[in-house]
Amino acid sequence: xxxxxxxxxxxxxxxxxxxxxxxxxxxxxxxxxxxxxxxxxxxxxxxxxxxxxxxxxxxxxxxxxxxxxxxxxxxxxxxxxxxxxxxxxxxxxxxxxxxxxxxxxxxxxxxxxxxxxxxxxxxxxxxxxxxxxxxxxxxxxxxxxxxxxxxxx
Length: 153
Known about the structure:
Number of helices: 5
Organism: Calyptomena viridis (Lesser green broadbill)
Helix content: over 70%
Number of domains: 1
Radius of gyration: 19 Å
Domain MARVEL: 21-153
InterPro entries: MAL (IPR013295), Marvel (IPR008253), MARVEL-CKLF_proteins (IPR050578)
Distance between the termini: 34 Å
Largest sheet: none
Oligomer: single chain
Low-confidence stretches: none
GO cellular component, one term: membrane
Strand content: under 5%
Membrane topology: Multi-pass membrane protein
Shape: elongated
Order of helices and strands: HHHHH
């Protein structure tokens, strides 16, 4: 008789659910993504938003990404994935697309920061825009890291 090798389902790592989400890479990046993205949204909202076309996109990307990531985190915590392989694909596609969108938002926020140097409330708005740029690039990096970590898992 031929020996049957291990099935492919047993060699695939299980998707975390419950508190294990916070200690399993790359899923542990979701909470920092949400927190840094929230800081981007708060810091941009604290300025006068003198460049609505640029900073409107930053606000849209940060708020939408924050909400979708929060729903994704809750679905992992509650175990909605039922260890389906499709969730890895969904997670990877979402984080990859969001990384690209966040990188574009970070560049636009950096441009808004440069343009805010000569504004009426120069020191305060420049500092808020600088902090928003920093957190936007940090959040983009976290999304990139998450997307590649899933891909190479």
